[in-house]
Each structure stands twice: as C-alpha cells, then as structure tokens.
Amino acid sequence: MLKRVTHSFFILCLMISASACARGLPELTDLIQKNSPAVVKINTVERTRATSALPPQYQQQIPDIFRHLLEPRGREQRPAASMGSGFIISSDGYVVTNNHVVDGADEVVVTLTDRREYDARVIGTDARSDLALLKIEGDDLPTVSWGDSEALQVGEWVVAIGSPFGLDYSASAGIVSAMGRSIPNESRENYVPFIQTDVAINPGNSGGPLFNLNGEVVGINSQIYTRSGGSIGLSFAIPARLAQDVVAQLRDKGRVDRGWLGVGIQDVDRNMAQAMGLSRPAGALVAQVESGAPAAEAGILAGDIITRFDGERIMESGDLPHAVGQTRPGAEVPVDLMRKGKSVRVQVTVGALPGEDGPNQQAAVNPSNDIGGRLGLEVEEIPEGLKQRLGVDSGVIVKQVVPGKPGARAGLRNGDIIAQLGFEEVTDLQDYFSVVKQLPANELLPIRFFRGGQPTFRTIQIDE
Known about the structure:
Thrombin, subunit H; alpha+beta; flat; 12 helices; protease; six-stranded antiparallel barrel; 20% helix; Pdz3 Domain; single chain; 4 domains
C-alpha cells in the first residue's frame, strides 16, 4: 500500500512540475499570427556582378588591384541574386531592413505573406548601423509597432520572424543573452550596441524583426556568429531605439548625422584602474586626441579615462562610440574623466562624424538617370578643415553614390576620399573629371580611396 501511495505521489509531483513548467513558457501563437502579415521577404538582383575564375580559396589572398591580372578577359557577367527579410512600419509602405540586404542591388522586390509583390525604392541606407529604409507603393498595408529596447532584460523571451534560407515567414524564439554587445564592422567602426540572443537566426533572417512578448519590435536581426553557416545560438540584433533614430533621419534627409569626439580609445585594465584611482576597471582610456577635434577643444588629454558621457556611464571602451554616435552634432554635453587620480568634468561641443555631412550613399535616386557621370558618383572638393581632420592633403570627397552604378558596385560610400583612379592620381575636382573621362570601359581598374583616414585599394569597372 505504501509503495502504491509513494508511486502515486511521485506521479502527482511530476504532473505538478510539468504544469509549472508549462505556465513558465510563453504562448506565442497570437503574437506570430498578428505580426506575420507585416513581415516581408526581400529579394534583390545585382545585374552586373562579375564571376571570378580564381579558386575560392585564393580569392581573399590576392589584393583587388592585382586580382584581375590573373583572370581571363571577357569574364562572364551574370546577375547575382540575394534575399533577406524586413518589416513594414507604416501603412503607406515604408519598410525597414538591413543595409547589407540591399547594398549594391539594382532591383529590390518586397513580398508579403499574402504573396503580393512590390518593386521597392531605396530611400536611404546607413552602413554604419547596417540599416536601410525602403518604400513600396501601397495603401492600408499591415504594420508592426516599435517597442522599447532599453527596457529589455537578459533572460527575457523574444521572437524572430523572417525567411531563413528562403523558408518564408518562419518563426523562432529564445531569450536575450546579453545587452550592449560591441561588434566593430569591417571598417573597424563601432556604433551599434547589439542585443545578443540565442534565437535561431540564419541567412535570410537579416533585416527581420525581433519582437518582445508584447508583439513590439525591439530589434532588427543583423548578424550571427557561426562556424557552420547556420545558427549556433549566437545572434545579434540592432536595438529598436537606435533603429528608430536612424530610420527617422533616413526618411527626413536621406542620411544619418552622428556625433564625433575625435579620440582614440582603449580598455582600462586592472593595473591602469589602480594607478588612476579607480576601484575597478571601467571607462574608456584616451590613447590619442586628434588635433582640433571637439575633445581637444574641450581640454581632454591623452591618459584621461572617460567614465561618463552626457550622464551615461561608460563601463567599457566600446560604450563610448555608442553614446557619442547617438548624440546630435552641435550638442554641448558634460564628460566626466579621471585624470591623475582625480575626477574632472569638462563640457564638450560634439562635432559631426566625418563622412556624415552629405547625402546618403543610396538616397532615392533612379539608377537609369545620368546622375554622377560614368562612375555614378557625386564628388566635390575636400574642405580644408576636413583634410586636417582626416590626415589627407588631396583628392575629392564622395557626396553621393548612385545605386547600381560602378561606384556603388566598387563599395564606395559617401565621405570616402578618392585619391587615385586607374593609375592616375586625383588631387582635385579638375583631375577627377579629366581622369574619369579617359578611363577605358569594360576593364577592371584600381581605385584608391581613404575611409576614416585609412587607405584602401579596390577595383572599379565601367560598363559601356
């Protein structure tokens, strides 16, 4: 009898535990059904991407400037297609996605869950945040609502909807693993405090929404860490707070203005913290101050440790670009420092990040128009102050890049400084127009430019 009672009690305990576990799991059906109609699939076509005759294992080892010498003439030209996800934020057809989903695309097609398809215009893109704003022509389209990404907590449930590997409108769920992750982009810039999750995100999910349990968009899925090409439980989303600001600027003016301080920084280790009078490692150690930069004008010195920027605590060096980048140029903000073991506060008038003062690289432009000449680039002389800031003494600055044209396919962005075209130096506007006029068509040619003060060689080809 005792054995039977004990067994029954054990079964009852299991049932209670299972019930408790079930109550702890979120019910996602309504959330997914309600929001899926506003999640879109994005297909893009780049018509003139050249195929390479080099084996893939060698392609990354050979600089662009020399790679074409090892490839046969008359290489096949064929369209390159890619896909991603996005979501509609207004009933009249504004769509948010990732910059890398539409970068270089000649055609962008948006497909809804009910299989309606729309040709999309690129209103603007921002490579630094990896965001893009598209426009489709429609009325009474389904939409999603923005949520407060600042209210997210580690351990909170989140849901992604997108088209991984082309599997349309797939949903996956997980938890927030960490907040404020610093992941520099390929240009070593770091302006996005990513949300890290363990939600299953795969190629094709890029640009899709990340929802909280209220059905609000709190992030835009952007990156994964993977060894296999698929999800291993490390995915990263752009916070909604940052995305809303970027999208609003792209919609209003086709570009994004960011704050600039003009310092080189590094992390604070234990020994440095002790030497500087900090109880523990924290803040951003100023390793270099650019001459004439806002930091220099405010009296910030190399060796200072920035602990707060405009009231926001700086725990790691990567926190500082996040805070400064989201500050409007011209704003005067307090900056708290540790200097020689003492607390110091200075007032800084934030500058404009170089390259952020012109129209966005993919502002709404019809690629068929003869804008930007043979290269599809609008350029102008470099202001003297900007020359000093970037450490260059000649060249022309890119103010606009026309989607689908040679400059866009070469990866140029607004703010880049062109110093060489073909094998000719470009010192000013007159040089630029003279050289462009003489460039041969249908050949890969070297182009040298500066981005953020760093020289880069790539190739460019004019198709005529």
